[in-house]
Write a structure and sequence with these properties.
8 helices
Length: 181
């Protein structure tokens, strides 16, 4: 059992009174890396917290830029997938040449998968080719079906530029877009 879970079980209010930045500092060594103790502790804790707290933490990740805020948001979005009834495979925080760098895969039995890509903002152009290659590689590995979609979850409500970018691309039928709200 993770130390964050133990702390939460001993004193829920202590945890609930903390910001996500403070919680992250309590987890492991305080630095999120692929499947390290900090990552595992944080994900365990997020699975136990009330939804209202996850909303508060997501808002904090978007309002206050801090180290690993985007990675924490990625874990919060994947936690939302679980709470919506999906079977969720968390992706990597940092991909590499030999791995597929998706943020999550959400599955429902008998349905096409959703490849999750979390962005804090749509202020910058997103390389749709790069994200589509995640899908292509996952299909090649038979981890998902060809009819699976890519869901980009954007931190802020204003997604107009990204919507236009997707509509104007050859991937219009492969991508879906939603804000964290």
């Amino acid at each position: 059992m993770s130390s964050l879970i133990e702390l939460y079980q001993r004193d829920k209010q202590f945890i609930l009174d903390k910001s996500i930045r403070q919680i992250l500092a309590f987890a492991g060594d305080g630095k999120l890396k692929n499947n390290n103790q900090t990552c595992l502790d944080l994900r365990d804790l997020l699975s136990c917290l009330p939804t209202e707290v996850l909303i508060q933490y997501a808002d904090e990740c978007l309002a206050e830029k801090f180290e690993d805020s985007g990675l924490v948001l990625q874990d919060i979005v994947n936690q939302a997938g679980w709470r919506l009834g999906f079977e969720v495979e968390c992706g990597l925080y940092q991909g590499s040449k030999n791995t597929v760098g998706y943020d999550g895969i959400w599955d429902l039995p008998g349905k096409p998968s959703l490849i999750i890509e979390v962005k804090t903002t749509d202020a910058y152009r997103i390389n749709l080719d790069h994200i589509y290659n995640y899908k292509r590689r996952l299909v090649e590995q038979t981890r998902i079906s060809e009819d699976s979609s890519i869901l980009i979850v954007v931190g802020r409500k204003d997604t107009g530029d990204l919507e236009a970018q997707i509509r104007g691309s050859r991937y219009g039928w492969d991508f879906r877009l939603i804000s964290v709200d």
